[in-house]
């Protein structure tokens, strides 16, 4: 299938399997040579002074005012290859003064005053004397820097790209960069970038060229200034936790109550089946288990909470198991008994461990577990199965019963919640701090503000799939099926 040129993300089929890992096309092609440098952590603080000028004068005026400053910096010291603030601060006192004088010849001195929050008098007296403004309080300084960082935090933003253009311009001014005549696009990008408006379609070509060029230049961005920038400004400002509000989805109480009634009717009219064999009792057990889970979600309003996702995953697994058992029954009539024995063997394994390890668990009651295990057969005749049931895991079972999409998205997604994988933890339990000076870090949701998209619709749909399987094997009341099940969602 031909790729849409406007697509930003690689597809699943574009990934390459390497030793059990799906490698992105980029990671696979670059391999060990790929080295990632975070713009916002290391580079952006170094160029924050340029951003403050952009913030004050706008794009066109800033380019006019800054290029004379860059020319002075380029000429003043052979070792300086970029306008990083740490490089300027490391110059001799005499050279620093010459740079600051040129800056003051082109911009208002108060523009760089916010930097005096972290560039203090004791460490950098010349900078402080030139740019400190007693009329600007700490809040105003913080507000200016915070607003700027929000704009340039993303390395691909227009504002960040403008700064990166200036960052590499010193090398051009020094004559240390030469373009091959054949790379006309790169030459044109540098020649016309400053004069071209960001709304011009050609900037879609210019901006990536500038960013790629800036990335390619090897520069040391491990200065103490960047570390101090984030630590000191972060300590001065407050967190601003951000969460997304989702509306709850009312679950169908009538469907739940009617389903319990229908289950009771089914049991009453099939008592003989309860006394004979494993098929009916196993199917009833799986269905009843799912209905009880559905009821717990409904009655306790768990739909938009973590446990709602646990519940949905379990109901999906019950559905896949039930459908698999019905499929395998065609070739093995004893599959129902084998399924029950498999489950009891898992209980037996826990019982043996409990007896031997003497580990106290208040919710694991040995007498009850022992009684359940020995109900049908003495435990001494019950082997423990350490494999997946029927030697196939749930992913393989989903494929066999033609439910691969259900497993691949819904089940796998909710599994992240059951296992406590970071994606689930981040979505449910960690709030993003909407403060750019805190690098949009995470804070724990100790006040339970973050609810989740409700599983009510999905859990209802999946329970109806189970009820539909039950109805295919033991006819349920026609009116019930017509009103609650035949809605287009529960059919195979």
Helices, strands, pairings?
Elements (H helix, E strand, L loop, with lengths): L15 E3 L2 E3 L1 H6 L8 H5 L4 H10 L1 H18 L8 H5 L3 H14 L18 H7 L6 H15 L5 H16 L10 H9 L10 H14 L7 H13 L4 E2 L10 H17 L1 H5 L3 H21 L6 H23 L6 H23 L8 H8 L20 H7 L3 H16 L2 H8 E4 L8 E3 L11 H18 L4 H8 L7
Antiparallel strand pairs: 1-2, 3-4, 4-5
Helix pairs in contact: 3-4, 3-8, 4-6, 4-9, 9-11, 10-11, 13-15, 15-16, 15-22, 16-19, 16-20, 16-22, 17-18, 19-20, 20-21
Q: What sort of overall outline do the alpha carbons produce when their principal axes are compared? A: elongated
Estimate nothing, just give the exact number of structural domains.
3
What share of the residues lie within helices? Answer: 55-70%
C-alpha-based Rg, rounded: 33 Å
Strand content: under 5%
Q: What's the overall average pLDDT, rounded?
A: 90
Q: Count the helices. How many? A: 23
Q: Structural class, from secondary structure content?
A: mainly alpha
The end-to-end distance, rounded to whole angstroms, is 28 Å
Strand order of the largest sheet: 3-4-5
Q: What's the β-strand tally?
A: 5
**Spans with pLDDT under 50 lasting ≥5 residues?**
1-6
Order of helices and strands: EEHHHHHHHHHHHHEHHHHHHHHHEEHH
Main sheet makeup: 3 strands, antiparallel
């Amino acid at each position: 299938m031909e790729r849409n040129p406007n697509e930003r993300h690689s597809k699943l089929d574009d990934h390459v399997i390497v030793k059990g890992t799906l490698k992105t096309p980029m990671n696979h092609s670059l391999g060990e040579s790929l080295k990632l440098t975070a713009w916002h952590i290391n580079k952006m603080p170094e160029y924050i002074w340029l951003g403050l000028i952009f913030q004050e004068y706008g794009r066109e005026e800033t380019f006019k005012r800054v290029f004379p400053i860059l020319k002075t910096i380029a000429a003043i010291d052979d070792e300086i290859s970029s306008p990083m603030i740490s490089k300027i601060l490391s110059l001799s006192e005499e050279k620093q003064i010459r740079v600051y004088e040129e800056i003051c010849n082109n911009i208002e001195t108060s523009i760089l005053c916010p930097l005096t929050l972290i560039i203090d008098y004791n460490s950098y007296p010349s900078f402080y004397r030139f740019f400190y403004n007693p009329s600007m309080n700490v809040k105003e300084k913080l507000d200016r820097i915070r607003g700027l960082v929000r704009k340039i935090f993303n390395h691909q933003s227009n504002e960040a790209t403008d700064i990166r253009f200036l960052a590499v311009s010193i090398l051009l001014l020094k004559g240390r960069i030469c373009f091959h005549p054949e790379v006309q696009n790169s030459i044109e990008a540098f020649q016309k970038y400053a004069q071209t408006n960001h709304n011009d379609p050609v900037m879609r070509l210019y901006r990536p060229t500038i960013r790629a060029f800036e990335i390619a230049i090897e520069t040391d961005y491990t200065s103490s200034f960047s570390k101090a920038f984030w630590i000191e400004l972060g300590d001065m400002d407050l967190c601003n936790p951000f969460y997304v509000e989702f509306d709850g989805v009312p679950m169908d109480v009538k469907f739940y109550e009617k389903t319990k009634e229908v289950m009771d009717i089914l049991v009453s009219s099939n008592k003989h089946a309860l006394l004979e064999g494993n098929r009916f009792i196993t199917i009833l057990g799986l269905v009843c288990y799912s209905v009880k889970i559905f009821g717990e979600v409904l009655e306790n309003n768990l739909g938009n909470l973590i446990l709602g996702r646990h519940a949905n995953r379990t109901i999906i697994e019950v559905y896949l198991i039930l459908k698999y058992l019905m499929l395998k029954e065609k070739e093995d009539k004893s599959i129902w008994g084998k399924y029950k024995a498999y489950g009891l063997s898992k209980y037996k394994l826990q019982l043996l461990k409990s007896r031997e390890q003497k580990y106290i668990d208040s919710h694991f009651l040995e007498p009850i577990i022992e009684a359940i295990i020995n109900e049908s057969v003495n435990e001494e005749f019950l082997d423990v199965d350490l494999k997946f049931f029927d030697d196939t895991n749930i992913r393989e079972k989903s494929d066999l019963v033609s439910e691969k999409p259900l497993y691949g998205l819904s089940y796998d997604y909710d599994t992240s919640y059951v296992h406590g994988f970071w994606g689930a933890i981040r979505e449910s339990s960690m709030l993003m701090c909407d403060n750019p000076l805190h690098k949009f870090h995470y804070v724990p949701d100790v006040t339970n503000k973050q609810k989740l998209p409700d599983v009510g619709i999905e859990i209802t749909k999946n329970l109806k799939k189970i009820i539909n399987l039950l109805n295919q094997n033991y006819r349920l009341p026609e009116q019930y099926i017509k009103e609650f099940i035949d809605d287009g969602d529960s059919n195979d």
